[in-house]
Amino acid sequence: MGDKVIDINRSVYELCTDYPELKEMLADIGFTDILKPGMLNTAGRFMTLEKGARFKKIDLEKVRESLAAKGYIISV
Fold first, then answer.
1. pLDDT in tens, 14-23
2. Residue 3 φ/ψ, nearest 5 degrees
3. Is the confidence at residue 1, as pLDDT, over 60?
4. Helix residue spans in 1-76 (DSSP H)
5. Which CATH superfamily hosts domain 4-75?
6. How many whole angstroms separate alpha carbon 54 and alpha carbon 1?
7. What is the per-residue pLDDT for 75?
């Protein structure tokens, strides 16, 4: 199994398309709107992980640590 690399400049929609399990993980971190019907297909198409963290006032380092604990690497 290769590294799961998350590029924070890609849209949340693209990331969740590549890694479907990421949707629940992001919701657990605080991106709860991602679970609302249609949200991933609308706002998720232009919202990056970095923009979303800033918008939701979630420390990007917390996101990085949470995903790293699950085997993901965040790249810039």
1. 999 999 999 9
2. -65, 145
3. no
4. 12-18, 22-29, 49-56, 60-68
5. SP0561-like (1.10.3910.10)
6. 31
7. 87
pTM of the model: 0.89
CA–chain centroid gap for 16, Å, is 7
- What gap in Å lies between CA 23 and CA 35, rounded to an integer? 7
Q: Which of 34, 17, 23, 31 has its CA nearest to residue 59?
A: 31
What phi and psi, each to the nearest 5 degrees, are found at residue 2? -80, 170
Ranges of each domain in the chain: 4-75
Residue type, 21: E
- Amino acid symbol at 59: D
68 touches 29 (CB < 8 A): no
pLDDT digits (tens, 9 = 90+) for 32-59: 999 999 999 999 999 999 999 999 999 9
